[in-house]
Specification:
Length: 243
Amino acid sequence: MSTPRRAMLVVGAGDATGGAIARRFAAEGYVACVARRSAARLEPLVAQIEADGGRARAFGCDAREEDQVVAMVDTIENEVGPLEVAVFNIGGNVHFGITETTARVYHKVWLMSAFAGFLTGREAARMMRERERGTIIFTGATASIRGGAGFSAFSGAKFALRSLAQSMARELGPQGIHVAHTIIDGAIDTDFIRENFPQRYALKNKAGILDPRHIADAYWQLHCQPRDAWTHELDLRPWMETF
């Protein structure tokens, strides 16, 4: 008798954190549904998951577009399996002084980091609520709790995402759905950090930047928590990061 397939979704499945989360859940038997605007860019991640013995499916989806998000979640439910976990992992970090921040930049960052999170969370909740179970995790950042100079657009969007997560947790918790918000406070081991911030990247040898695999472990632990001890907000930072 075959084991029923369970699906999890990562919106914003890049080469670092999002990919690591997908691989972690795939290793536990979930079908990792991974999404970003270009499905072709997900081919290496899908191939890696399958080479490791897991199952994955790529979705080309602009998470800012309602019709595309609705269609993606419907397809997962109809063709993959019940959606048990949804992770919203889109960043949108930009740095401009306030007078250099155009309306276009501010609106684009809000669409990416806040509105897309709303669409992802709403559609996941639409499926999970019928079954009275599921986990929805929103990836936040330092900017979710502290607005730094030059980060008006990014902080505005991340504050909005954090508020969304709080509202959803209060509404959906009694319905059996665990909603969590993580604050990733520190540099992550990515090619971007290595190429653009070599001095910061050098701290890797001292465990001074976040390993995406360890972030993924924390997401798995959030999903596994019993209902009597749910974490809503979890902050992750290297030991040497000030806060």
